[in-house]
Amino acid sequence: MASSNIIVDDGFNEYESAFKRQKYTTSKVWDEMTKLECENNDELKAQCNPCMRIFPAKSSSGTSHLRRHLNSYWKTFNKDITYYTIATQSSLGRDSSIKAYTFDADKCRRVVSTFLMYGKHSFRTVEEP
Prior knowledge:
The chain is α+β, with helices and mostly antiparallel strands and 129 residues long. Helix content is 22%, strand content 15%. The chain has a domain at 26-80.
């Protein structure tokens, strides 16, 4: 009796893994971006969470253009001092509550000039280095 190889198709390919390995994103860009999948499986897009703009995000294009967008966006967003300062206002007998802070340039100029005049400090104290 001759032995023959019998091919059985059970739907399992030994070269295909049952579990697909999840790809991890290592760039800090993905903290501020969301991956979007398109109808075309070859195409991948990224959406900026703060401004909602959509960019190409294929693995061949990298993440440098996404980082440049985020850097330019945050530079324009953080120009106003009120975005990163918080003042508290306390009332007598009450807890302090957080209040929106507005920067008053005239008041700051008066306080600095008073500091210089009454303290007899030199102008180098407040000049830029």
